[in-house]
Amino acid sequence: MFKKVFVTSLCFLFLLLNSIGLKGQPPTGPMVVSPKINTDKTVTFSYLAPKAKEVMLSGQFEKKPVSMKKDSIGIWSVTVGPIEPDIYPYNFIVDGLSVMDPANVDYFPNERFKGSLLDVPGDTPLIHSMQDVPHGKITYEYYPSVKGTTGSLVVYTPPGYEKNPSKKYPVFYLISGTTDTEEDWYKVGRTNFIMDNLIAQGKAVPMIIVMPYGNIEARIAEQTGGAKPEDPSGRENKEAVTRALNFSEDMINNIIPYIEKNYNVISDKNSRAIGGFSRGGGQTLRTAFGNMDKFGSICCFSAYLSTQEMEAQYKNVVDNPEKTNKDLKLLWISVGNEDFLYKQTEEFMGYLKGKNINYKSLVTTGGHTWMNTKKFLNASVQLLFK
Amino acid sequence: MFKKVFVTSLCFLFLLLNSIGLKGQPPTGPMVVSPKINTDKTVTFSYLAPKAKEVMLSGQFEKKPVSMKKDSIGIWSVTVGPIEPDIYPYNFIVDGLSVMDPANVDYFPNERFKGSLLDVPGDTPLIHSMQDVPHGKITYEYYPSVKGTTGSLVVYTPPGYEKNPSKKYPVFYLISGTTDTEEDWYKVGRTNFIMDNLIAQGKAVPMIIVMPYGNIEARIAEQTGGAKPEDPSGRENKEAVTRALNFSEDMINNIIPYIEKNYNVISDKNSRAIGGFSRGGGQTLRTAFGNMDKFGSICCFSAYLSTQEMEAQYKNVVDNPEKTNKDLKLLWISVGNEDFLYKQTEEFMGYLKGKNINYKSLVTTGGHTWMNTKKFLNASVQLLFK
Known about the structure:
The structure is a homodimer. By secondary structure, the first copy, chain A, is of the alpha/beta class.
């Protein structure tokens, strides 16, 4: 009886795929499996496109796009690697157009790029992998933000957080980069698993991590009916200044008070850190240097401030190094040596050194990537709140 | 000074987009805005593809794909509508290939289809819109599941849940459909905003809603290193039976105990409901009818069980209608009259009627869509736990 029922169910599956599928999807022919990670850590990518003339694989594990080959039923595929265990964004380039891998459920949340994620596991579990340890939670939160809008936050709470309401935790505010959303530190950076594993190993202090959306102008436009900014950093200088100020104001006036009201938080300066990647690193430095009474630790990933901006806006930070060095438990700067901001970040570190400002730094290989952000987070978060 | 700094920043933006962009993306030329909702509720869609020969818009707001026109710089666009306010999946068909809208951050989480979401607001706010009312929270949870794997859940807790740990809530287990993930009831179905609004209006009882992942076989394969099933319902009948049993077992033995241990829950049968859409509706009926002591309410959206399966497996439910009608506070069945399962669902209702089993039903216009799931959820959830 079950047999008949399930043969019927199987027929329905195909009807259903036809019915609910977005029109224009490949017909419900072969179900492509992609990516397929082989035991030798080579990876086979496949994409069904019978009519395409050229399909290439573009991934951050390769220096340049790799040609794929079509089989008799129109599935293009290629095997690359072995690939060093990590999580990499990738996509297919089909006759010049970038597309996600339709067979892969893991995506890169982004305002512009639509990429998939390849997760190559290590022979021993990597720090960002899901391991058999107590898990914290990720919560999507709404808070009252600037100009009457409602903002969104992704919040990590450590294992056991909700079991003991009388225990209070330090907070790390962690900002993603240009075109990222508030989801990227979770879905691409795997902040939750990195923290679960470090806490289980006794290497990081249990803490709350608050991940805001960096491009609040887009949200303001959306919620107030204004035009969405056509690019994420602003075409007009005046607009860009307003944006930078808006973000810092939102952090200081809305996000921090909301978190401190609604979570079990130690609300002194030394239990409050701020960090960010790329544009989020710039927002981090500006927010922290402009509010030195608010943050005890600063983590800057793949970002810098120019000497001109430091001299014009943040003399308070550099003119009294003894005070700054006392005020800050940690000033962390990290960058990859192939990052297009590497030189500027080195200059920034040189500037701070010249001013006798203490900082800790980590220079890795690689570029301006989410492979590096995980390394930066893993290294710096072990130093926080100790 | 800021001027100079931000002109520099603007240059970096473009460098940065080039640097972090997945290779093969359109160059950082014009920043396309799409979709643009016009005041008359027409919507303009735009897509940059200078080399494409034909670009079409495919959306669940149109009966069939609509041609787009290319301008002199290679941006294809079309204005359609007015469109009835709702949230619709859509994508572009570029020389026969389906792609997401790269300019739109809102996506349809799915194992196969990669669609974007169009949200056309109503003149008065729709029930699924974010309104100025207290907001519940969405939490991503991990729980110990079958075969030593770790499962994932998305959990809605109502406004004020964490403020009063002594208050206990009823729980609604809500399952998505074939190729959906545990995120779809949140990101596409907007369960959180529907609940926030209904609770604020006094129309729904505050409750916890638990949204599991329906395709646990895929997860088992992923976590145990097995091959991923090539299609979501199984090629072998035996495998498919195993899957149906696995899901029910996971719900009864793992998910419910985990939730009742970790949330403030009323754990009697009448405070426990189960519901689902499409494959999730089938999972709902099989889980509930196979465990009539566990659930006081059942919500079946766009799904049915055949007469043969009912007679073979669930005689206990239909042979004593008085007991069943007493046991179930609600048996809800809803379907759209253009759903490809409409006829079978009508037959299912006819079968139940013939057996004197009480149920409430809602037949809407439209098909097997997430526009309809929101209507079904909105209508049925107002009847739960009253």
